[in-house]
Structures are given as C-alpha cells and as structure tokens.
Amino acid sequence: MNIVIIGGVAAGLKAAAKARRVDPAARITVVEKGKMISYGACGLPYYVAGDVQDINQLMTTPAGALRNQAFFKNVKDIDVLTETLATGIDRAAKEVTVKDLTSGEERKLPYDKLVIATGAVPVKPPLPGIELANVHQLWHPDDAKAVRAGLERGKFTNAVIIGAGLVGLEMAEALKLWEVNVTVVEMQNQMFPAFLDEEIAGSVAKYARQQGLTILTGEKVEKFTGDGAVEAVVTDKRTIPADLVILSIGVRPNVELAKSAGLAIGPTGAIAVNENLLTSDPDIYAGGDCVENTHIISGEKIFTPMGSTANKHGRIIGDNLGGGDEKFRGVLGTVVVKVMDMNVGKTGLTERDAKRLGYDYVTAMVGGHDRPHYMPGAKIITVKLIVEAKSGRILGAQAIGEGEVAKRIDIVATAITLGGTVNDLFDIDVAYAPPYNSPIDNVAVAALAVLNKLAGRLKGISSLTAKGKIDAGKTVFLDVRTPDECKQQGRLVCPSVKYIPLGQLRSRLAELNKDDEIVAFCKISLRGYEAALILEGEEFKNVQVMEGGINAWPFECEK
Amino acid sequence: MNIVIIGGVAAGLKAAAKARRVDPAARITVVEKGKMISYGACGLPYYVAGDVQDINQLMTTPAGALRNQAFFKNVKDIDVLTETLATGIDRAAKEVTVKDLTSGEERKLPYDKLVIATGAVPVKPPLPGIELANVHQLWHPDDAKAVRAGLERGKFTNAVIIGAGLVGLEMAEALKLWEVNVTVVEMQNQMFPAFLDEEIAGSVAKYARQQGLTILTGEKVEKFTGDGAVEAVVTDKRTIPADLVILSIGVRPNVELAKSAGLAIGPTGAIAVNENLLTSDPDIYAGGDCVENTHIISGEKIFTPMGSTANKHGRIIGDNLGGGDEKFRGVLGTVVVKVMDMNVGKTGLTERDAKRLGYDYVTAMVGGHDRPHYMPGAKIITVKLIVEAKSGRILGAQAIGEGEVAKRIDIVATAITLGGTVNDLFDIDVAYAPPYNSPIDNVAVAALAVLNKLAGRLKGISSLTAKGKIDAGKTVFLDVRTPDECKQQGRLVCPSVKYIPLGQLRSRLAELNKDDEIVAFCKISLRGYEAALILEGEEFKNVQVMEGGINAWPFECEK
C-alpha cells in the first residue's frame, strides 16, 4: 500500500501517524512545500508574545524531541519530503507530480491512496502599499520570527492590526505585552463578527479598550503608506501611524491543486468531502483547513479552519486509509480566545445565525461569578444561551469574562453534540467545589433563565434593546444596586433611572408607577429579576429585565 | 397556600425562594434550629485556610448583602424562624410542632405543603477521648471559627485528620497553609475510598506526601488521649502527637423527624423521595442532604450529600410547591476536590463500582498536558475512562493532576447524562486555543485509548497490575524515555528494566526478545504505546503498555 500525503503540518502528519499505527507495512510519504513540518501554528502568537521562548518548542514533542524528518522516519517510519511542492495530480495514473524546491527537479510519486491536506492561506487584500516592509501576516513561523525579532530590537512603537478576529486579537495581546501601542481596525461593525453576537462583542470591545487597545469597528482600510517600510495605515476615516501592520482578515482554503485535479469544490469554496473525508475521488481523502465541514446543528456547509478539527480529520483519514470506516460528525464552530485577561468563547449557532436560518428561538444572557464570590480569584462571566423555543433544543452559547469560560462552552458543546435540551443543562451533575464553581453552575443558571423566559416568568431584553429604549426616552430604568455599587461600577447614562436598592423595593413601591414601562437591572441582573418579580407580584403591568446587567453593558457608564 | 420548610441552609431556602417566585401570594415560613441561615457550608475549609477572611462572607450575596432574616423578609417576603427546632410533624392535622430554643416555648405551625430539608450530621464515632477539647468536626460555622481562632493564636502544631475524604483533604490543605504538621489517618486502604479507584488514589497519596502531608491508610483510630485537651491520637499501629483533631469520616442523613412522622426511609437510610422529590406523604417534599438520590447510570439508590444537588433539589421543590411537575433526574456522584495544587475529580461509576455492578467494561488511563506543552503553565493531568464494552456507553471518569481537571470531568458528566458513548467523546467540537487545551483534548485522547483497546490495538495494564508483574519478576519493562527524563522523573524500582529511547527502538530491536512478555512505558505512556506498536509490527508476541506511565506511578521511584 502506497500512501502519499500532501501537506505536513496538522491534518497531514496526523493522518500519516495514524495510518502507520493501523498498517505497519504501508509505505507512507508526506510532501511539504515548506522547510518546517508539524509545527503548532496556533502557538505563533504566544511565541511573538514571548510566552514561548524558542520557536522550536512549537515543533517538539512534550518530551522534547524535535518533530523533524528524522523523528518521523525513526519513530514512525514515515518519509517526509520538505521543500517539495506537489504541482499536479494525475488521478487516472494515480500519480502526484512533485517538485524539489531547492534543486528544481520534478518527479512523480505513485499512490494507491492520496491525502490532500494543503491547508489554508491568509487573505491578502490588494491594497496599495501592502508590499511595504513590516506589513505581516501571522500564518507561518517566518512571519512570527520576523515580528518577534523586531520587537526584541525595540523596532515597533505603533502597531495596527487589520481584522478583529482570533489571530488579530491574540496578536493584539502579544504586542501589548511588548508595550507597543495597538490599534485594531475591523471593517464590520463589531469585534469577532464571525462568531459573536453584537451585544457580546460590544462588551468585549469595551473591555479591550479599558485594557488600552484602540478598537475601531466599521472602518475600512484603504491603503498603507511609507517609504520602504510602512509608516501609516489610511482608513476611510483617519490616518493611523504604524511601524508594524498585522493582516488578519481571515484565510481561504488552499484548493488550487484539488481544483486542477478536477475534484469537487463545495459551496464554501473549500474541498467537498463526505463523512469519511473522501473527496469526489474514492482514492483521495482531504482534511484540515482546505476542506469544508458540516455544521452539526444546521447541516450547513461551513468553512471553519481550526487546529482541533484538522487533528480530528487526520485521525479519521488515517484510520480509513487502513481500511476503516470512521466518520467525521461535523463541527459546531466552537471557538475560544483569550483577549488580555478576558476569555471569549462560543459554540453552535449565534443568535444572528439562528435568525438567519429561521429558527424560532429564545435567548437568555446571565452574569455571575465563576465560583462562589467569597473565594479568592472569583471573577464574573456572562453566559448567553440560544435555544429552540418549541423543542428546548440547545442551539448555541457564548460566554465572556475574566473567569473560567472554556469549561462552560465545552459543557454546552457536549450537550449540543448529543442533542441536549435546555432542561438537560440544568440537570447535569457537574463537578462542584468552591475552587471551581458555585453550587448552581453558570451554565445551569443560564438554562434556568431560558426556562423562566419560556414559562413567561422572565421578560428579558438585551443591552442593545435597552439602549434603544433609553434613546427613545419612554421607559423607566430601575437600578436596584446599592449606592456603593453604583459608584464603583458606574451608572447608566440615562435621564430616567430610578435608584431603589432591592432590599428597599417592597417598602418604596409608591415611588414607581404601575403603568410605566419599567426595565429593572443590577450588576448582573439577578436582583433585577427579583425586582421584576416583586413588581409583577404587585400588579405592575410592563416590567422587563436588562439581561447581563451593568456588568455586560457595552456602552460607557457615568462614574 | 401555607408552606412550611424545615431547614434553612441550602435546599430549604432555595425551595423557599423559588416557591416565592412562582407564587407571590403564598405564605412561606422557614424553620432553622441554628442561628445562622443560608451559609455556604462548602466554603468552611477556605475560611479556616484564610482564603476567606470573614465568615460572614459565606452568608452574603455577591453584592454584599447579608442573607439574614431581614434580607429574606424584605427581598423575598419569606419568614425565617432561627433557633427554632421542629420537634414533630402531625401529618393528619398537617401541623409542625416547633420549639423556640431561646425561650423554650412550643407552638404549632399549620401547613398545606411541608418541606423537610434537615440536612446531614457528621458521623461521630464512639471512641474514647472524643470529648476532649480541640477534637472538632468541620460541619458548622462554629467549628470553623474555633479552629481558625486557634490557628490565629498559633495554638496548633500537630493536626491529625481522621478520614481521607473531601472535607478531610480540604482541611489538610487549609491547615498546611498555617504551617501545621498534618497527618491524615484513613481506615480504608486508600485515599478517597468513596470515589477513586485504587491506582488513582495511590497517585494522589504520593503527591500529597510529596507536598508534606503524612498520609496513613489502612489504619484505624482507637482513641484520643490528653488531659482536658487532646494530646495524641492512638491508632492500631502507632501513637500520633496531636493538639488538633478534625473528624471527617463522613456524614449521615438527619432523618429522625421524618422517621418519627412515619415517612418512608430508603435503603441508604436517607429519606425516600420520588422524582418530584415528594416523600411517601403527597403533601411533604424533602430535599438536600437528608434524602437519597438515584444514580443516573446504575439506577441504584445512593446517599451523596452535595451542595450542588441540594440547590437543585431546592429549585425543583420550589417549582413543585407552586404546582409544577419538575423532576429530578438523579446524580452521577460527581465530585471535584483540590488537594494542595492537585485537582482530583470523578463522575459516574468507578472501575470498582462497574465491577461490583457486573458491567462488562473496558478502561483506559492516559496522561497528557492540559494545554500544549509549550504554553506557560501547562501541567500534566491523567484521565481514566470506564466504558461499557459492548455498547461503548460511558460509565465514568476520573481525572487528577495539577492541570485543569474540572472541565474534563464536566464534559464527561454531560456526555453521560445524555447517554453518550466513547465515540462521542472524540467527536465533540470542544473549544480549542493554546491557553486552554491541546488540539486533541485530554478527554478525546482518553476516548481514543479506549477505542484502541476495544479494537485490540492497545493492550494496556494498570500500574497496580504492573507492580504485580515487577514483583513476580517474569516481565521485561521497556522504558522508552530519554536518559535525561529518567534522571529527572525517576526510574522504576525493578531489576528487569530495559532502557531504549523511542527514537532508537527500531534500530535496537535485537536487544529485545520476541517471546518475552514486555511492558512498555514512558512518562505518560504515549511513547510507550508507540513502542508497543513498533514491537507488534515486528512480530513481538506479548507487548503491553503501562497506562499513565511513570507520571501516574503510585509507588516510589529511584532517582
């Protein structure tokens, strides 16, 4: 059995390693156009930050062995050809043409089974000045090395990051650690437009600004100027001084080879594969960032390049190369990203997705400490759930905050994968002890909020809806926090706020009008909810709760 | 509607609060025999440790309001009678007799619906000397205050903790922070006998000893000696000097009131309730630490008092008091506990449980970093999965290590709750980014190990089985670590270890005998597994892998 694999980073080498485990006798050849193989590309921002000292650490095993050609040969009996470009696939002859990039020599590699793992390439917009020095993408170790070397020499003072996505914000944090001024320019109206709902993105942006990043959304870069090296970024709104530019506006699948071989390309522009990760040719598999995936909830084809998915693909392809019938179930578009000390995560559908796909859904957003508030290190996180109204099926979740977020996203991702409902999220016997969480975990609290909304007990509105009501000027906002909290956490900028701490509400009802539209809130709106229940118990007609409270308020507060 | 609730800590007050939300008009009275209500009992060890400065923090809301009688009256319109003991229930008359413990007065409270949330009481063995001063249980805030006050005055030098369970080890950590010498005495042969398998418990004990705790297992306390105050603990093996003793050998449900009212008591000795948390009387609910629960997997009745379960009970009872039909699904016996810097968690069945219940199961135990090894703060955790062999259904998991453990336990708990299989654990699109985890999360790696075992590709043995083979002296142990690692991590105490680093194995096969029984391992046994595959590919007949590697080896190593 002759196996050829094109691409030697994540999916390709994982497939090779697994194929070897399944079939000790196969001949396995991996072709990689670059010099380096099997590197942890997701670690590059942390190398730039200085968290990772040596870039070779991204290419070693946990035991310290460099995952180079000799390693793959000695340990796994896999031949890796580096600096070797696959230039064509002859499907009839079952041959791949490869070119040695150092000697220029071409030759043909015969295959019984072929794997395409050509990855993705960063999008490079055709903007004037993009060829200037110090305009970098952050995709290959060489980019990271160049940026880090410049930082070590104190070369950069003002960095502009184009694109407020994952790599963009990871790089923003990395550069900030080097005390560089960082401006992030995003064409869309919000941060993380690919995976966060607008009000959550607003909270993240507010936090990022508080941490000293300049976040410019709804702003389009027009050109880069400078004499040899970049000196400024010109947008449709201003000119920003910049001696370093990071382009992180996304990636596209690298499908040229597959396309020219006549393999089917899917609606997303990535290679189409079936559940077994077979392409339209039964002897050619494809996996990693060059293929499209199926969304587990919606069934849509989506392009979500992710290191974790690439590794799963590799494992499944490796098994199937050895005669297995392993299937890839699909993705939830789960992401998590660290933005300074804030954790930001999402799984499944956003509310925007749910709306676009026509779901009848309900959402709830709740804040709360990630462990009992009395424990040292307890931090607030905000969890938003999106649930199908009729069935209760969980559609998605987002969570942000300085507290533990990834665990909550993973609980929901697990529940969604198994077809769970919002009731299930309350039922789960999660691990409880004060260093880890509160007796009712944040996910369960969010589930209860959804259940209360479905039962008609909680009428919640988002911060954005609340802002609209403030602007319209017809609504009374009821702030039930204590005066100390208001001072510390800031006040809503709104002429019609009434301040009545929750403990006094029952005795001060006369100060409110039963026919007014009232929006109650507190720091996280748990007391806001209590307040609404008290008012409803007293026959107030139109009481709502501002979900997430002042803690998730994306706009400026008065102090 | 007249609702009376007996017990004002977790389940009772949660039920009261939820009942109020559902029914603004009900009359709700809570009866509590102690002075304090609604305190976070699970936080007591952290108060003793000094992590929590003021014990009142355990009784405040996150916003700082003390959850006292006035709070429940003003905010929730709930009457709480403290220092009031319920002495009898007249089910025919639907009345509870209560006694004011300060005045001694008795009176009767009529009820339409009654809730029993009388909690549990710590087991106090009838040992000589147990009445000596400084012999404490750690169940009530008063115990914690006494211990902390003694610590602050530098009163304690040698503490002995009886029982290596949750509270015992939390207290061991707390006392160690005060630089007290701590000895933990456990009657069973292992730490955490209620929820860890023996080899995992052995790893925890090894770690605890390395951190300076003295852990004595299989040792029975016979008496306490001293003149007024405790001076020593006498076991069946030795006399241990002690000026502080913490009794933490478990708790039993407080069922006297329920029993004398003729309510059904279950096989565990706790109050029997149905899914709605109704007792054998249709007007009396019970919840929290005084009731028994149903195990979601086995269907067995079990007694697992846990703050998280009590809060869930309270919420469900509150809903049902208002006419709801909420059901409690049951528990998985999930636990998590911090032992110094090690996190220890379990959900579902242990291997011991699975054996006792007659399941046909397979287990796998794997070690690995909790995030990419190149990230700062990456730590190794060990995950053990127990899976039903035929169906692949997940039965349970245990995880330990200085890295992130609770998340992995919660992923498995979620999957079990939804009937997930070991395949599902690989499929889940968990949140991936280097600050949080590796591209293939530890849970997925453990799932793959199980799948490899089910497919006959991995023949794993536990550290205990390996120890047996070392003692029998007929097996070759193959250590494929590098010499540097062996020096750093220590060597197996075994005369028949062969040292061949993995990268040299293919070229040094002649040093091994194809007919020998060989057990391969490394630090975490990932390379041990690679080594086994190489040997099997070369037609070695009898190769096994020591699961978890030297990292999870519970016995001493040679350095």
TrEMBL record, chains A, B:
SUPFAM superfamilies for this protein = FAD/NAD(P)-binding domain (SSF51905), FAD/NAD-linked reductases, dimerisation (C-terminal) domain (SSF55424), Rhodanese/Cell cycle control phosphatase (SSF52821)
Which Pfam families does the protein's record reference? Answer: Pyr_redox_2, Pyr_redox_dim, Rhodanese
CDD domains linked to this entry: RHOD
The cofactors it requires, by name, are: FAD
The similarity comment for this entry is:
Belongs to the class-III pyridine nucleotide-disulfide oxidoreductase family.
Keywords recorded for this protein, A-Z: FAD, Flavoprotein, Oxidoreductase, Redox-active center
Q: Which InterPro entries match?
A: FAD-bd_OxRdtase, FAD/NAD-bd_sf, FAD/NAD-binding_dom, FAD/NAD-linked_Rdtase_dimer_sf, Pyr_nucl-diS_OxRdtase_dimer, Rhodanese-like_dom, Rhodanese-like_dom_sf
Residue ranges constituting the Rhodanese domain according to the UniProt record: 471-559
Q: What is this protein called?
A: FAD-dependent oxidoreductase
Species? Anaeroselena agilis
